[in-house]
Amino acid sequence: MLTLYHANHSTCSQKVRLCLAEKGLEWDGRLVNLATNEHLQPEYLAINPNGVVPTLVHDGRIIMDSGVICEYLDEVFPTPPLLPADPVERARVRAWIRFLDEVPTAAVRVPSFNMAFLPRFDGLDDAAFQKEQADIRPLRKHFYEKMGRKGFDDQEVDNAMERLGAAIKRMEAGLADKPWLSGASIGLADLIAAPLMDRLDDLGFAAMWQDGSPRVTGWFDRLRSRPAYATAFYPKSRLSEFLPIGPLRRQATPG
Description:
Elements: E1 2-6, H1 11-23, E2 28-31, H2 42-45, E3 55-58, E4 61-64, H3 66-76, H4 87-102, H5 104-107, H6 109-117, H7 126-134, H8 141-147, H9 154-174, H10 188-202, H11 207-210, H12 214-224, H13 227-232
Parallel strand pairs: 1-2
Antiparallel strand pairs: 1-3, 3-4
Helix pairs in contact: 1-3, 1-10, 4-10
């Protein structure tokens, strides 16, 4: 039995759902309401002390962290394989996974919050924001402190968008001699990159690859045409389907 604690719009949840779909695995879903901080309640923290989604429970065993979950699924359910057989190629794909998780996936949170999530904090003063939004988070307290209730400032936005642009350029170069980031066949690097690209597209930034990165454009088109994509990105799993998308820049004022 596979049970996935996840959120519809969570990019980390989306990559695991995409991995499950590509492997054709059946699973039981438990939706976690991030807007009401359900992921920070004692019941959820008991299975994931980081207070983030997703969490996979397989026959009573808990697996945390979306990238780790995807690699676990590939090890336990090896058909179809999502990592190359060759150790060197497998290491190359794992290097992609680490880069994608640490750089662009982290960076896309900045425009996501500035453009979609800030209205959640309306009515809070700085002290209430600190107590009710930042201090309660085991893993992302400092992320919330840096953002503040008014959003990331222009420098943070510029830095995030620069990292995202650099990641797309790296992907363009990585696709020079192969159809997928993972090699000749679709694999974990592609599935982990997909939610990042889908989020940028949803926020209105498709020009970042459509204007000058034809390999990335073709790769993303191929990815979205796969049946698993519609399974993972079902209705209401994109921010624009249930939240108003605001402007990118929302200058924060210290204090």
